[in-house]
């Protein structure tokens, strides 16, 4: 069976959860079922391909900055994808994001759509009226042969918002790619005692409420810091916010490689995931893999993924957040238990399982097509 992916997410992302998912999936599909996989990508800065010396794909990578670069990558890669779509020499198509550009070219060939979350639908006030993600996603959902949801939580949201039949949706969990290497030495000067926050700090990530809730803990322990991995440099508004809480000297931001991120997890007192909503929550698995205690929200997919390996809190209640963090900070027995429970919970997830279950979806569609 020949499966055609497209260029979308590898044009848009240098790194990120969705491009990581597609990259890990296509690597393993070749192993699991020996599918013929094609990704019509000519130009990309995506880290996962450039750093994987054993990649089964050969692309021309452009890693220089210049005006108009993103537009050039998009046009060149989309033209190449369209050319492959027009040839119709594939059995199934799997778009890597939600742009419906391919619908006019795909004909009767079936396609599978992965839905990662329903953030644009549930938090539409956060996005510009010009953001077409929800409209594009809806157009694809209505025409997909099968939808893969990355959690039962996302599946429920799909049914609730779009009225889909359960039989249209297959839940397939993601895996973890982060591995802590004790031999890696980082050349970053970081505090010895810290809480860890990872990723974007956009409003649904609930960063401000989390910082406000834990500011008292930081003020009472000047040796404790809050380290933020990724998410971009702090804005002027964020710096003012920290100053008003009198914690400016205890909050730091870092842009990290995977090696360094694993180190940050491993040496943190705990990892806090205060998000109001997640479609899956890959940082949960990263924390488990790095033996870092997890303290997180009791919302959306997070309890489903973390299971009994987390100290939970109500993300809308600052006292709940503060007490959960204090409980884990002050109880070494609880920290040890969370680390052990996380290692056990991690065994439930793997990219090999993701690829195998996805291959089963592909095969079932292929068989129905050829009845």
UniProtKB/TrEMBL annotation:
The keyword Transferase applies. Gene3D superfamilies: Glycogen Phosphorylase B. InterPro entries: Glyco_trans_1, Glyco_trans_4-like_N. This is Glycosyltransferase involved in cell wall biosynthesis. GO terms for biological process: lipopolysaccharide biosynthetic process. It comes from Flavobacterium nitrogenifigens. Keywords: Transferase. Pfam families: Glyco_transf_4, Glycos_transf_1. Residues 15-175 form the Glycosyltransferase subfamily 4-like N-terminal domain. SUPFAM superfamilies: UDP-Glycosyltransferase/glycogen phosphorylase. The keyword ATP-binding does not apply. Residues 191-345 form the Glycosyl transferase family domain.
